[in-house]
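Regression test case RT-17, inverse folding.

Input:
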């Protein structure tokens, strides 16, 4: 088998030199300028204020009417946009990436576009084709960024399926997938064949228009994957809501069949697993075993999850079982179990299994680095870390300075596109923003030290 049951990294055991525990007390803030730290403190405090997040879009419209587009835009660029966005032009994005690389961090570009499940219907195939062009440009931009020789084959970008396929289609597919005895007409292998051949796919649960949209969506997804693989860019597919995730996982599985074989140098397509869902550990184990049996490489981005409040509201309205963990502690335990499973798989299967530890939680990061050392997984191996641009810098910088591979998720684009995207992300990540008090305290301490002349 291609996934051999041998320990690739842990045979030698932990380094005889001993492990140096990571320090997340903000020491690495000395690498950043005072202006950057002041802006970060201000923006993080603003984003932790619930009314600002809840009414963000209305407040943006109000500021434009009161201050005018130019002044309102200037304020946003100096604050929220400047904190969380790489820029609008290629030159601005490259400048942001070069600053990150100087700090030992790497870019993970994200196109700020998607179709929200509760939004009005978009304007048909033309909208998705426009998003396809944006994704292909993102591949080019990701590949064209300045890089060091050690980044070969390690360029990553994010992909949102609902930018290329309608949520309505994903809902209908999910409803069909969840029924017992689903036929093989919705198997990943059949979808992969249709994706590769371009032949019309007919699925009995869909009408003619939906089948046409499914075929067009498969074609768009395959074009992005093909383009990305040719340019050595790996795709990290975002998870979304539970009522469309089974369909998204099916589409990602089809891409994996086509692009994650060893002969392609995979995994080129990674899926995201949300630890705040009750069934995540079992799904992760099952999917890993399925990839093993099929001889496919397996790529995973492990997150806690961002849709907790909405998931609970939907389950209450529909009278269905809540799919989420009961509390934050249970979510953390789930994340820990999933992390342990994945690190064990990496230690046994090496380059056939890749993991991004996408977490702002210090204990999760400590667990990951400790287990990597115990299992003998090298810092430049198939495990990396991910945090949002503008957040959790005390963790990102410490990891980067210690030699771990750390990626910052970076949206880019014009104000009109990015600000609504950021507000939606803030609404989904309320707990993360409100839980950033430690980072705010560390930023405040560093700034006071500089003001009092005690900083180095």
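Golden output:
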């Amino acid at each position: 088998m291609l996934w051999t049951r041998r320990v690739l990294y842990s045979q030698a055991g932990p380094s005889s030199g001993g492990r140096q525990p990571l320090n997340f007390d903000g020491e690495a803030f000395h690498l950043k300028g005072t202006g950057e730290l002041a802006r970060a403190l201000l923006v993080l405090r603003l984003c932790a204020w619930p009314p600002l997040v809840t009414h963000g879009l209305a407040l943006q419209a109000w500021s434009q009417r009161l201050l005018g587009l130019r002044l309102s835009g200037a304020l946003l660029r100096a604050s929220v946009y400047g904190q969380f966005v790489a820029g609008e032009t290629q030159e601005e994005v490259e400048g942001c990436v070069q600053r990150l690389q100087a700090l030992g961090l790497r870019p993970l570009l994200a196109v700020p576009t998607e179709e929200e499940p509760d939004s009005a219907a978009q304007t048909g195939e033309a909208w998705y084709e426009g998003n396809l062009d944006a994704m292909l440009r993102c591949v080019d931009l990701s590949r064209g960024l300045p890089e060091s020789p050690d980044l070969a084959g390690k360029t990553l970008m994010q992909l949102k399926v609902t930018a290329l396929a309608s949520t309505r289609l994903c809902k209908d597919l999910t409803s069909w997938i969840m029924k017992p005895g689903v036929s093989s007409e919705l198997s990943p292998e059949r979808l992969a064949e249709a994706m590769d051949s371009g032949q019309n796919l007919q699925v009995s649960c869909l009408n003619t228009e939906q089948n046409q949209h499914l075929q067009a969506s498969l074609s768009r997804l395959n074009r992005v994957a093909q383009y990305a693989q040719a340019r050595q860019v790996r795709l990290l597919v975002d998870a979304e809501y539970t009522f469309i995730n089974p369909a998204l996982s099916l589409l990602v599985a089809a891409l994996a069949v086509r692009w994650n074989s060893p002969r392609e140098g995979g995994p080129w397509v990674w899926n995201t697993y949300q630890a705040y869902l009750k069934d995540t550990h079992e799904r992760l184990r099952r999917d890993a075993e399925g990839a093993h049996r099929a001889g496919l490489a397996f790529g995973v981005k492990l997150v806690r999850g961002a849709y907790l409040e909405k998931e609970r509201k939907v389950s209450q309205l529909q009278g269905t079982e809540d799919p989420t963990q009961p509390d934050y502690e249970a979510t953390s335990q789930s994340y820990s179990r999933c992390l342990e499973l994945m690190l064990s798989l990496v230690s046994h299967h090496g380059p056939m299994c890749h993991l991004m530890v996408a977490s702002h939680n210090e204990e999760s990061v400590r667990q990951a680095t400790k287990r990597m050392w115990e299992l003998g997984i090298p810092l430049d191996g198939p495990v990396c870390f991910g945090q949002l641009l503008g957040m959790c810098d005390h963790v990102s910088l410490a990891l980067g300075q210690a030699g771990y591979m750390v990626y910052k998720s970076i949206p880019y684009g014009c104000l009109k596109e990015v600000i609504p995207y950021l507000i939606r992300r803030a609404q989904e990540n309320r707990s993360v923003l409100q839980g950033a008090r430690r980072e705010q305290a560390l930023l405040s301490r560093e700034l006071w030290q500089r003001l009092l002349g005690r900083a180095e």
